[in-house]
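In this section we walk through a basic example: taking a raw amino acid sequence and producing a predicted 3D structure, encoded as discrete structure tokens. The instruction is simple. Fold the sequence below.
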Amino acid sequence: MSAVCCGRVLISLNYCASEGWRGCDRTTFVGIFLGIDGGGSKTSCEIGDETSLLGSGVSSGSNVVRVGEGKARAAFETAIREACAAAKVTPSKIERTCAGIAGGARPETVEIIRRILEDLVSGEIDVVGDMVIAMEAASGGGPGVVVIAGTGSIAYGRNAAGQTARAGGWGFAISDEGSGHWIGRAAVSAAMRAHDEGQSTTLLAGTMKAWGVSTREQMILAANASPPPDFAALFPAVVQAAEAGDRTASEILVRAGAELSRLAEIVVGRLFSDAESVPVAMSGGVFGNSAQVRQVFYNNLRSHRPGVALNATIIDPVKGALELARKSARRGVGA
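The resulting token sequence is shown next.
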């Protein structure tokens, strides 16, 4: 028999001398926690108790700056509803939520996300940067560096003394090197340059198809629209062209890998000595969907920092968000 109190599932147990606690005389509390990774292209949720994953959900992007508050709210609601259904719990049972989002260091963004989530779930809510949950997923509370390359990009690290540093992630207009957006924008630029020079590339046709336009003029109008189009949506077309042997597409992915390795090098250099072995992890769809980017990233980073220990597994930040929600609840209980 069970009930719900303060966001925790109450399980009643009776003591039996031979088998331990059974029945209804003793009550234990099982916390329910929610982790959220709110990205520019995808929103992921995981619901779990203290030790187990109970359910997950996925929806569209929830970056408020890119999609606006209304679409962000709809994305969070869809992913949370899906995760709750899979976990067979209601949002009212959630004790603690940790949401990792791009721009989570900006107070105005935190306020918007917190307001949205307060309408959707119960319990305490923590809103942090996406690099914080990725770091938790990569190395828990230990030292290391994680490089995220999704719609945007950033490198983030922490050393044994607890000092942190970041590189990149300053927005599409001036930063986010090697990201999906950066790659898509580079692809359109390269396709138009190839056209100007009379060179052949499959990038133009691929990017036009991805955006659903049928002429070069429509592509130009789309690329220069305000607000800007979804350049990250062109990333799969670039990967496909590179795998088919398109030299221009391949060169873009090589540059992306080099840019991402540079972000990692900056953070490693700020936090670690040359003699240290530094755990480095990768996260995000660019790494996950392009072996070429991964290989260039690894080769460049190792050539400049031979001591890095690269984790070949693409880590999932939402798992870090769920674990941070658990940790926050434990600290609250012990306070």
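Looking at the output, two observations stand out. The domain at 32-135+318-334 is CATH 3.30.420.40 (Nucleotidyltransferase; domain 5). Confidence is low (pLDDT under 50) at residues 1-7, 9-27. In the next section we compare this with other chains.
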